[in-house]
Design brief:
Layout lengths: L2 H4 L6 H12 L2 H13 L3 H29 L3 H8 L4 H33 L3 H4 L4 H6 L4 H19 L1 H28 L2 E3 L5 E3 H9 L8 H18 L6 H7 L7 H31 L8 H14 L2 H37 L3 H21 L8 E2 L5 E2 L1 H29 L2 H7 L9 H22 L6
Antiparallel strand pairs: 1-2, 3-4
Length: about 475
């Protein structure tokens, strides 16, 4: 089978950049980035994150996109084409999206449920203390919303690269940015006086978010902030999960990869920063610093309470917010499924329709099991990092905390010590283009990035707890 002739492609640079950025901008940007920034000294976290974007993130993103375009393969087979010893990396890189797809689409169903609640005028009820817990622990309703979200993902992937992924990304991403900018500006104008007479404003919350707080910062604390920023960046830019390898394989040879990678990182970083501008001032205004919390509780518990406290405007803001989050969840879920579809098409010579439907069926079954993990199949399992997990948390731990660092470490060792950094640099510089940070890239991919990744991997086992 001639992959070069038959493989689908993005139509050009714009389609490639928007689709890749759409993949990177997901739920982690919206609920995890603001929480970490608020917890880790505001501007201190932002500075660490920006430095890592320009070095650590750039190295991994450049590597995976170049691997994809040079091999014209999905993640399962791309690493083997680099060197036969890369087969294990390819298997792990394919297993990551296989684990992520079912539970990510379940969370996408949660987002749809809240969007429906605000559209129907039930936003005040959604702000209730037991609303979220009551919803996810019910038997059939989470499955219903998950199935709708899953069907939308399968439909777009079934349409293909150009008519599905690229077409919808070109529409959803501009609308997403218009919405997040609008809500961010509104968030800065908020003001609230609580029952004790204390007045808090959105601008004060913005300063909490952006001004570095160095009080009590020790080397150990700084290292924790650095690891938080690296962990956030790690899955924020969709590396080590096969996505960027698959998307890179769809990029045409005349696309300037170096410039495109810069644009992808710019869009992703801007979206993460604006998510903080949108969320932190609003939560601070109505709930104070204690309102910030990690994970789904920020988006499904804290923010609905904030929207309810806004009065009549809160219903509109809630609708806009959950439409925006739906877009982010949908584009990321599309890319997760596409990484698996590309792998199976390349490895087993399947047609897109067959791969899409069979993987969709697997995700449907897996997602139902995840939904039942909050009721009839509920259990609690202590993890090495000190957390307690049920089905969704366990899948997230294995994929994000264990497998992804291993994929990235293997990738760096393969590039830096087996095939050589020039293997990547030659692809990025193909034709008339230049790779402006190639000296930094050589050092990062061979020495610095593997060490940082190994430290991050050790965190999975509670080494630094």
């Amino acid at each position: 089978m001639n992959q070069e002739k038959e493989r689908n492609n993005f139509t050009g640079t714009l389609g490639f950049v928007l689709a890749s950025a759409a993949s990177a901008i997901g739920l982690g940007n919206i609920w995890r980035f603001p929480f970490l920034a608020a917890r880790d000294g505001g501007g201190l976290f932002l500075v660490c994150y920006l430095v890592l974007v320009a070095t650590f993130g750039y190295t991994l993103l450049s590597s995976e996109i170049a691997i994809g375009r040079k091999t014209r393969q999905g993640p399962l087979t791309a690493y083997t084409q680099m060197d036969k010893r890369g087969s294990a990396i390819g298997v792990l890189a394919c297993l990551v999206p296989v684990l992520i797809l079912p539970y990510y689409c379940v969370i996408g169903g949660w987002v749809l449920k809240y969007l429906a609640a605000f559209v129907s005028g039930a936003g005040l009820a959604a702000a209730g203390d037991k609303y979220f817990t009551g919803f996810i622990t019910s038997t059939w309703e989470p499955i219903f919303w998950f199935a709708i979200f899953m069907a939308a993902v399968v439909f777009i992937i079934y349409l293909g690269v150009e008519q599905g992924i690229e077409k919808y990304s070109k529409v959803l991403m501009p609308v997403f940015f218009l919405m997040i900018i609008g809500v961010s500006v509104y968030s800065l104008t908020l003001s609230y006086t609580d029952a004790s007479g204390v007045t808090r404003t959105g601008w004060e919350g913005f300063l909490v978010y952006t001004v570095p707080n160095l009080e009590g910062v020790t080397f150990s604390k700084f290292l924790n902030v650095l690891m938080d920023a690296m962990g956030q960046l790690f899955y924020s830019i969709s590396v080590a999960m096969g996505i960027m390898v698959a998307y890179g394989s769809y990029a045409k040879k005349d696309v300037d990869l170096s410039q495109s990678i810069n644009h992808i990182e710019l869009f992703d970083t801007l979206a993460a920063f604006l998510a903080g501008v949108m969320i932190i001032p609003a939560v601070y205004t109505f709930m104070g610093k204690e309102g910030m919390s990690a994970g789904p509780s920020l988006m499904f518990i804290s923010l609905p309470k904030v929207f309810a406290a806004m009065g009549s405007a809160g219903s509109v803001v809630g609708i806009v917010f959950f439409v925006m989050v739906t877009f982010a969840a949908l584009t990321s879920a599309m890319s997760v499924q596409e990484a698996i579809v590309a792998s199976f098409m390349d490895r087993f010579d399947w047609e897109r329709s067959k791969a899409t439907l069979l993987i969709g069926l697997y995700a449907l079954i897996g997602g139902i099991i995840v939904c039942l993990g909050y009721n009839v199949a509920y259990f609690e399992l202590p993890l090495p990092n000190g957390a307690v997990a049920q089905i969704l948390d366990l899948m997230d731990y294995i994929s994000n905390i264990v497998f992804m660092p291993l994929v990235a470490i293997g990738e760096c060792l393969l590039i830096g010590w087996v095939v050589g950094a020039d293997w990547i640099i030659e692809e990025i510089e193909q034709g008339k283009y230049t790779f402006g940070r190639k000296s930094m890239y050589r050092i990062m991919v061979k020495y610095v990035t593997p060490v940082l990744l190994f430290i991050l991997f050790l965190q999975a086992f509670g080494v630094f707890n």
